[in-house]
Amino acid sequence: MSEDPAMEAGVQEVRELLHLSEDMRLGIDVLDEQHEELIMQINHLHRLCECGSACQEEILKHFDKFMIEADKHALVEDALMRILDFPDSEHHMAEHVDFFRLCQKLQVKLESGECVRGDMFYMKNAFIRHVLDDDMLLAPFLIKARRSKREYRKAFAEILVKH
């Protein structure tokens, strides 16, 4: 199979489902980079879904990769909130749980051969809502909470070593 199974299956031009606009940037490099990676993953998954059952194996493989990246991202955010005592951390972490529940439902559909375009749009919208609502409340707190770059880097290093 070629590098791009969607192209091989005849899916030529599929518009990106999502892009990281300036109003979605948090101003925290590590989180913005993770958001960019997740968006790339969502777009690629959307593209694979457009080619349908011809890309079933690739869809499942790519969805697993997306879930690993989403899990890493949630772990980083959750750890930062705990380390820095974010006051709304319970709500934020509950939003992560809800997003993963949505992804589990999508995974069941993908495994059964259903790759429903509406489900991809629903996942995209859930991601955007989380970034614009929940992460935008978290970002100013994280920026204010870092007493020095050294302390902030130390917190990130602790998180990355654990995960």
From TrEMBL:
Origin: domain of life: Bacteria
Gene3D superfamilies: Hemerythrin-like
Molecular function terms from GO: metal ion binding
Stored SUPFAM superfamilies: Hemerythrin-like
The keyword Transcription appears for this protein: no
Record's keyword terms, sorted: Iron, Metal-binding
A Pfam entry, by short name: Hemerythrin
Chain ranges of the Hemerythrin-like domain: 27-142
InterPro entries: Hemerythrin, Hemerythrin-like, Hemerythrin-like_sf, Hemerythrin_metal-bd
CDD domains: Hemerythrin
Keyword Ligase in annotation: no
Xref: NCBIfam families: hemeryth_dom
Family of the protein in this entry: Belongs to the hemerythrin family.
Protein's name in the database: Hemerythrin-like domain-containing protein
Organism: Parendozoicomonas haliclonae
